[in-house]
Amino acid sequence: MPFIEMEEKKFSRWTVIHRSKKTKSGAYWLCRCECGTEKEVNGYTLRKGLTQSCGCLAAELASQREYRPQVVPIKDRF
Question: Is the Cα torsion angle 34, 39, 43, 48 positive or negative in sign?
Answer without folding.
Answer: negative
